[in-house]
Amino acid sequence: MKAHRGGLILALGILSFVLCGILMVVFAAGLHFSLEGRGATWGPIMFALIGIGLVGAGLFATDPGRGFPPFGQAEPGPTLHGHFHDVFSLLVFAGFPAAAFVMAAHFTGHGEHRWAVGTRACGWVLAAGFVVVLVAFNREGALADVAGVIQRVWLAVAFGWLTAVSIHVLQRGATVRSLPGRIDTAGC
C-alpha cells in the first residue's frame, strides 16, 4: 500500500510541476502581448524560462536526501536525473529574481513607481532567499533541517509576487500589441 501511495504522490508531483510550467509559458506568451516599452521583451522571456525550468524539474526527479523520498529508498548519491533537476531548478530560482528586476524596470518606465519599488524589493528578497536556499541544502545542522521549509517559503513569495503582478497588469488595461494579421477594431 505504501509503495502505491508513494507512486501516486510522485506522479501528482510531476504532474503539478509540468502543468505549472506549461501555464507559466502560456502566461509569458500573454504577457508578451500585454507589455510595451522597457521589459516588454525580457519580462516574458524570463517567465518562459521559469516555465521551462518547472517542466524540466518536474520531469527529472531530485536525488534523495534529508528524509526524501518519504516512501521507500531511491538510488543513493548524485544521479544524472538529479543533476538535470538541479539545472532546471536553477532556471526557476534565478529566473524569478531576474524577472522581478526586469518587471521593476518596466514599472519604472511606465511611471508606476510604487510597483517598481515593491517589485525591486521583492527581487532582492528572492535573490537573497535563493542564496539561503542554496546554503541550507548544502550544509549540515539547524539550517539544513529546515531547508525544505525555507524553499517552500521562497516559492510562496515568488508565486505571490507573480500573482500580484499578473493581477496588476490585467487590471491596468495594458495596451495589447497587435497580433500578426489581426485587424485593429478599437476605432470602430
Compile the SSE list and pairings.
Blueprint: H1 2-32, H2 42-59, H3 80-109, H4 113-137, H5 142-145, H6 147-171
Describe the protein:
The chain is mainly alpha-helical and 188 residues long. The protein has one domain (2-68, 77-171). It has helices at 2-32, 42-59, 80-109, 113-137, 142-145, 147-171.
Structure in a nutshell:
The chain is mostly helical and 188 residues long.
Name the descriptors.
single chain; 188 residues; mainly alpha; 71% helix; disordered C terminus
Helix content: over 70%
* Rg estimate, integer Å: 19 Å
Q: How confident overall, as mean pLDDT?
A: 83
Strand content: under 5%
